[in-house]
Amino acid sequence: MSHAENPRGAERSARRPRQLFRNLNAKFASLPMILTALVVFVGGTAWTVAHSFTKSRLLPKWDFVGFDQYERLWNSNRWMISVENLMIYGVCSLVLTMVLGFTLAALLDRKIRFESAFRTIFLYPFALSFIVTGLAWQWILNPDFGLQGVVRGWGWESFTFDPLNNPDIVIFGVLIAGLWQGTGFVMVIMLAGLRGIDEDIWKASRVDGIGVAKTYVRVIIPMMRPVFVTALVIIASGIIKLYDLVVAQTNGGPGISSEVPAKYVINYMFQAQNLGQGFAASTMMLLSVIIVLVPWAYLEFGGKKRG
Amino acid sequence: MAETMSPPKSRLLDGPRGSKPKSRFSRRNIFLYGTLLLVSVYYLLPLYVMVVTSLKGMPEIRLGNIFAPPVDITFEPWVKAWAEACTGINCDGLSRGFGNSIKILVPSVALSIAIASVNGYALANWKFKGSEVFFTILIIGAFIPYQTMIYPIVIMLREIKLMGSLWGLVLVHTVFGMPILTLLFRNYFTSLPEELFKAARVDGAGFWGIYFRVMLPMSIPIFVVAMILQVTGIWNDFLFGVIYTKPETYPMTVQLNNIVNSVQGVKEYNVNMAATLLTGLVPLIIYFVSGKLFVRGIAAGAVKG
Predict the structure, then answer these.
(1) Which of A67, A135, A148, B176 is paired with A25 by a 20 to 30 Å CA distance?
(2) Does residue B130 form part of some domain?
(3) Is the same domain home to B150 and B57?
(4) Domain of B111, in residue numbers
(5) Which residue of A has its CA nearest to B256?
(6) Could you say which of B122, B151, B206 has the minimum Cβ distance to residue A30?
(7) Number of structural domains, chain B?
(8) B215-246: burial string, b at 16+ Cβ within 10 Å, e else
C-alpha cells in the first residue's frame, strides 16, 4: 500500500497543492478507461476523419486531396441508394417502433393478467443476433416456400408478396425484420416510463370523466417526454449502425438496392480496397450521429451542469 | 399493499375501493387480450417456423407449407448443421464456430467486467482531477459509429501482433463494452451508502481492500446484470467478428451467415434453420432464465444513455 492510501497521508496531501501521485491507485485503475477514451475513441475517430481527406487506397497514406473523396462519395450511385435506404428505414422504423412500442406498453399497463408472459414474448427477439433475425425472415419471406407460397397454396394464385426480390420495396422487407426485433425494447422502456407515472393522475382523470385514450394522448404522453426523447436517441443512433441485418437478410441485394451506409464503409475498406472512400463514408456516418446527438445533449444538459 | 393498511374510518367514508367488478368477457377485455394475442402470434411465428422447418426433411419442405407442423420429425438437419455443414473448405459444421465463440466469450466477459467494475468504482469513490472528463468522453464515445474506429483498431492490433487472433477480438470487445459497463457500475457504486465507504476508510482499508472486501460482495446482482449484458452482446456480435478474425477463428454468427448465405450447392433450408436456431440458442436460454435481470440490463443502458 502506498503512502497516499493511508488516510492521514491523504489528509495531509489534500492541504498541499494537488500532485500527480495522489490517489495513485484510482488513476492506475482508470488507465484502461483513459486509454480507451483517448486512444481508441478520440484518437481513432480523429485518425479516420483526417485520413478521409487523403487518397488512401490499399494502405492509408498522407496524400492530402481536400474534399475529393467526399465529392466522389456523393456522386456515387451506390452511396446515394444507401443513404436513401437508411432514410426510409430510419423514418419508418423510428415512427413505427415508437408507436407500436408505446401502444404495447400501454396495453400491458392496463392491469392485465399474464403480463409478464406477454412481455417475455414481445422482448425475446431483442435477445437474438441480427444475423439470426435476418436469416429467419429471409426464410419466411422466401417467395417459393414462405408466406407468398403458402397464400398461393390456399388458392389465391395471384397473391404477390416478395419484398426481398423486388428492388423497389426490398428495404421494407428489412424493416419488417427490424421491427420484429426492436419493438420489444422500446416497449420495455415505455413500460418503465408508464410505471413511473403517479397513480393519482389516473384517479384524477377518472374523476374528471376523461376517457382512457384521451388521458394517454393529453396527459400521459406529454408527461413522458423525457422517456420518449431517450428512446428516440437510442433508436436513432442504433439505426445509423444498421449493418448485420442487411448482410444476413439480403446482402445488399437484389443488385445494390438494399445497401446501407454502414455496409458501404465496410465494403470499401475491406473488399474494394479503397480506404479513402471508406473513411469519407464513415465520417458522414459520424456527422449524422452528431446531428442527432447535439440537439439532444443541448436540450438535456444545456444550461445546467452535467451530473 | 399500503392501501389495505389504511384506517377503517376512511374506508367507510369512501365506500368500496377499486373499479366496479366487470364481467370477464367485457368488450374492453376482448379487445385488450385479442390485440395482445394477435401480436404475440406475430412475435412467436418466426420462432415457430424456424423450429418446424428444422425438423422436416427437404422433400417435405418443397411440397408442404412453412407453417405446417412436420409429418416426419427428423433431427438430421440439426446433426448436419452442428457437425457437417460447410463454410469454404471446412466441413465440420457450426461446432467450430461455437467453440470459437465460447473461446472469445469467456475471456471477453471476464476481462471487460473486471476492468469496468474497477473503473466504475474509481469513478464513484475515488474521484481525481479529470476523472469525470474521461468518463464523459467515454460515454460520448459509445455513440460514435464503430465504422469510424474500425480501421485504426486494425492498425493497432497489427502493431501488437493480435490481428486475426481470438485475443485481438477479446480486446476489441473489452474496449467497446467499457462505456455501458462503466456507466452501470459507476451508477451502482454511487447509489451505495457513503457511510459504508467512509467506515472502511477509517478502518484503514485502501483502494483495493475496499473494492474486494466491501464493494464486491455487495454488488453481486449488478455483476450478474453486467454478465447478461455482455454475454448476449458478445455472442450476437457480427461486425467485429467478421473484421478482426480469420476463417479459422470466426465466431458462430459469422460462420452461420457464411453457411446460410453461401452461393454454392443446393440450399438446404432445414439445415439452415437448425443452424440459425443453434446460434440463437445461447442468448435465448440466457433470456428465458434471467427474466427480470435481462430487462434490468437493457433498462440500465437506456435510463441514462
Answers:
(1) B176
(2) yes
(3) no
(4) 95-303
(5) A131
(6) B122
(7) 2
(8) beeebeebeebbbbbbbbbbbbbbbbbbbbbe
CA distances from B209 to A25, A181, B71, B236 (A): 11, 43, 63, 36
Picking from B143, B153, B236 by the largest number of A CB atoms within 10 A of its own CB, the best residue to mutate is B143
Q: How far separated are the first and last CA of chain B, in Å rounded? A: 33
Average pLDDT, chain B: 85
- Say if CB A201 and CB A158 are below 8 A apart: no
User: Does A95 map to a domain?
Assistant: yes
Give pLDDT < 50 ranges for chain B.
Answer: 1-8, 11, 303-305
B-chain residues near A42 (CB < 8 A): 137, 141
Are the Cβ atoms of A40 and B175 closer than 8 angstroms?
A: yes
Residue A65 — very low, low, confident or very high, per pLDDT cuts 50/70/90?
Answer: confident
Give phi and psi for B296, each to the nearest 5: -65, -40
In a domain, B80, yes or no: no
**Residue B143 sits in a domain of what CATH number?**
1.10.3720.10
Number of domains observed in the structure of chain A: 1
Q: Do A26 and B128 touch (CB under 8 A)?
A: yes
> Distance between CA atoms of B60 and B183, rounded to whole angstroms?
51
What CATH number should be reported for the domain holding residue A235?
A: 1.10.3720.10
Burial class (CB in 10 A: 0-12, 13-18, 19+), A63: exposed
pLDDT for A297 equals: 78
Q: What's the ipTM?
A: 0.86
Could B152 and A43 be called an inter-chain contact, meaning their C-beta atoms sit closer than 8 Å? yes
Interface contact B35-A60, CB threshold 8 A: no
B171 within a domain of the structure (yes/no) = yes
Residues of A in contact with B128 (CB under 8 A): 22-23, 26-27, 30
Contacts of A146 (CB under 8 A, 6+ apart): A139, A140, B66
Q: Do A60 and B151 touch (CB under 8 A)?
A: yes
Query: Torsions phi, psi of B265, nearest 5?
Result: 75, 175
On whether both B154 and B33 belong to a single domain, the answer is: no
pLDDT of residue A5: 43
Query: Does residue B252 contact residue B58 with C-beta atoms inside 8 Å?
Result: no
Q: For residue A96, what pLDDT is reported?
A: 95
Please indicate, yes or no, whether residues B107 and B237 belong to a single structural domain of this protein: yes
